[in-house]
Amino acid sequence: MTLKTVLRIKKFFALLDSTGVVLRKKGSKRLLEYSDSSSIHIGVCLDESASGTNSIALAMRLKSSIYTLPHQHYCLFLKKWHIFSELLIIDKNTEGYLSLFSTEHLTNEFILITKLLAYKISNETKNMKKNYAIAINGGIGLTPRQLGVLKMIARGDTDMLVALKMGINVGTIRYHKTNIFRKLKVESALQAVVTALKLRLISLNDIDA
């Protein structure tokens, strides 16, 4: 079952920070509007002090994944939702939560999908933080976006292909390349890749990916 299929059937995902504040939501436009009208909007806090007993609050307190039913929620605006919450763990620290809200009972399949998605988000965030730290600590100062462009250059992607993959225009890619070359003190893409490998900003695995 694909993520698009999940989102079509009366369910939406919410990404929350470590304090229980909703940062982003993903789902059908109609369901997101419905959730907004139900007070589950960007910026709302779902920790226990603000919203009483609920899946996110319990996950925060018990430090484990939690599935709660509508009647188990304290606040009225949550009593229409089945909620499963999974921790986003990075370097043994809980950095946030991924919750799946549904107007229907959640099967094990949906719970597994949420767990896998949370694992993917945690890993990608960990890698981004690691790469950013390497670039900054190495005194180079490459941003995560610049590092991403550099990796695609290393794979031989053209400016147009990089732009398509990143969803930005070619001019912006060329601007990033100019800054990458300046920070690495090189004059070509090949020199940039060689220098980045020497400084361990990228690895051979990045090139072969």
TrEMBL record:
Residues 135-200 form the HTH luxR-type domain. One of its GO terms (molecular function) is DNA binding. CDD domains: LuxR_C_like. GO terms for biological process: regulation of DNA-templated transcription. SMART domains: HTH_LUXR (SM00421). Pfam families: GerE. Keywords: DNA-binding, Transcription, Transcription regulation. This is DNA-binding NarL/FixJ family response regulator.
